[in-house]
Design goal:
The structure holds 2 protein chains of 2 kinds.
Chain A: E1 4-13, E2 16-26, E3 31-36, H1 42-49, E4 57-62, E5 65-69, H2 78-85, E6 88-91, H3 103-122, H4 131-148, H5 164-176, E7 182-186, H6 194-207, E8 213-217, H7 221-227, E9 230-235, E10 238-243, H8 245-250, H9 255-266
Parallel strand pairs in A: 3-8, 3-9, 6-7, 7-8
Antiparallel strand pairs in A: 1-2, 1-4, 4-5, 9-10
Helix pairs in contact in A: 3-4, 3-5, 4-5, 5-6
Chain B: H1 2-40, H2 45-60, H3 63-77, H4 87-112, H5 116-124, H6 129-159, H7 171-177, H8 185-211
Helix pairs in contact in B: 1-2, 1-4, 1-7, 2-4, 3-4, 4-6, 5-6, 6-8, 7-8
The chains are: A alpha/beta, B mainly alpha.
């Protein structure tokens, strides 16, 4: 059984059918890139996986446990949705850092709240027995994450004093602070100036390891080709083509994929 | 000189009433306004409609009229069996209702100005709705509403003199008493009290704005 299984997802907004029966699987440690024109449903798919949208139909399971199933008619409680969300990390196009907190506070806010709750409930959080102990390890991990994204010296800055690229790197570190099973990126470089996209893409690339599973919705085709193990090309709410980067980008079979990629190639060398 | 001090004392006593009305109105209208704003943003349609109609009526009629309504309508409806023993109480009720309506719109503007992304970032980090409101959204709302709030609160200082229309013994009413003795200047002198009070408030709000100036966004 695959690590992430997404089956028959259907989502419509009013009368507009945005996702028409999407299914795919992802193995642990794999990087999936989702490409396609604007309006093809890429972002909606990612938002369904993160439970920011509720699909009308479909099943989502991680590591064998079903997180969402439309056949399960009982309305999900908030607490359950929250628990399910923790399998996933999400990096947004617009960063969405909390402006009133420093870089470091942005990283530790949610883990601290979670640690407090878990220790009250179960007397334990990721091996820590007391809140104080948990906070120590959260802080150590946050320092390490900041170092990984190359922003240790910005630890006490407010987001408004950072460049877009730096803000997005903080957002990546913040998403990692909760140790999600699968990290999702929703067009992480689309809001950035071209000269800033490189630093963010390099950070994402550096995260690739046998342990980290990632889904990246992107318009950066060459990045997708270099980093992804698997590519999905979406058009009009369906998966038009999927496969390895060699299959989808170097040698696309579908005419729509070919048309999309040729428009892209027109402007790149 | 003696006359000057006795006038000042009289006006100060009146201004005490203005300050009391101001303080009590703030104390109750600030939280009540928040409740009304939450109601007017509710997904429960009837509650939303009630709140919006309420705000429309209160903002759509003069505060002076509302003072008359609060003070005179209950005795008329009860055939005189109910009467405000204290005119100040009636004034407070009218002011609280009026200012709660205005405050609710300021809150609503502040809350609706927070980008969806802030809530979504909280959700994907596993935060609860109340954690998102108190830890993420609230301070941002406060920062956004300080300028319109300070405007409204400064207006409230001066509006308190409207209580005069139901004969609350506030500063302007006291100043008018002196005209019977042929003294007109106390009326103009009242302006100094308002100016001083509003000046202090302006400094206070500027201080709060500066305190919240450490971040942008």
């Amino acid at each position: 059984m695959a690590f992430l299984e997404v089956k028959n997802i259907k989502k419509s907004f009013g009368k507009t059918l945005v996702l028409k029966d999407i299914s795919f699987t992802l193995e642990k440690g794999e990087v999936l890139a989702i490409i396609g024109s604007s309006g093809s449903g890429k972002t909606t798919l990612l938002r369904c996986i993160n439970f920011l949208e509720t699909p009308q139909k479909g099943v989502i399971s991680v590591n064998g446990s079903v997180l969402f199933d439309d056949a399960d008619s009982s309305k999900k409680k908030d607490a359950e949705i929250r628990k399910n969300r923790l399998h996933f990390g999400m990096v947004f196009q617009q960063f969405n850092l909390f402006p009133q907190y420093t870089v470091f506070e942005n990283l530790i806010l949610a883990p601290k709240l979670l640690a407090k709750e878990k220790i009250e409930q179960n007397g334990e959080f990721l091996g820590a027995k007391s809140y104080k102990e948990a906070v120590e390890s959260i802080k150590t991990y946050a320092e390490q994450l900041l170092e990984n994204v190359g922003l240790s010296e910005k630890r006490d800055e407010y987001p408004c004093n950072l460049s877009g690229g730096q803000q997005q790197r903080v957002a990546i570190a913040r998403a990692l602070a909760l140790k999600p099973d699968i990290l999702c990126f929703d067009e992480p470089t689309s809001a950035l100036d071209p000269e800033l996209t490189g630093e963010v893409l390099n950070v994402i690339k550096s995260l690739k390891s046998s342990e980290s599973t990632m889904i990246v919705v992107t318009h950066e085709i060459s990045f997708a080709r270099d980093v992804a193990d698997k590519i999905i090309f979406m058009a009009d709410g369906v998966i038009e083509e999927e496969g390895t980067p060699q299959q989808v980008i170097e040698n696309p079979q579908s005419p729509r994929t070919q048309a999309f990629l040729s428009r892209f190639n027109q402007y790149s060398d | 000189m003696d006359q000057y001090w006795s006038v000042t004392q009289q006006l100060l006593a009146g201004f005490g009433e203005n300050c009391l009305l101001f303080g009590v109105t703030l104390l109750f209208a600030l939280p009540l306004g928040l409740l009304i704003s939450l109601g007017s943003m509710s997904r429960f349609k009837p509650l939303k409609a009630v709140c919006r109609v309420f705000v429309w009526i209160i903002r759509g009629t003069p505060l002076m009229l509302q003072l008359f309504v609060v003070y005179y309508i209950p005795p008329l409806l009860s055939d005189g069996s109910f009467k405000f023993s204290d005119r100040m109480t009636a004034a407070m009720i009218a002011f609280i209702i009026n200012y709660a309506a205005y405050f609710s719109e300021i809150y609503r503007g502040g809350i609706e100005a927070i980008p969806r992304g802030q809530y979504e970032a909280g959700y994907v980090l596993g935060m609860t709705k109340s954690q998102i409101f108190f830890k993420v959204v609230l301070l941002q709302v406060v920062k956004r509403i300080i300028p319109p709030m300070s405007n409204e609160i400064i207006t409230l200082v001066k509006d308190t003199s409207l209580a005069r229309v139901i004969a609350v013994g506030e500063i302007l009413k006291n100043a008018e008493q002196f005209t019977k003795q042929g003294l007109i200047w106390p009326i103009f002198y009242t302006g100094a009290f308002f100016l001083l009070f509003c000046g202090v408030l302006t400094l206070l709000f500027r201080f709060i704005e500066r305190k919240l100036d450490y971040y942008k966004g």
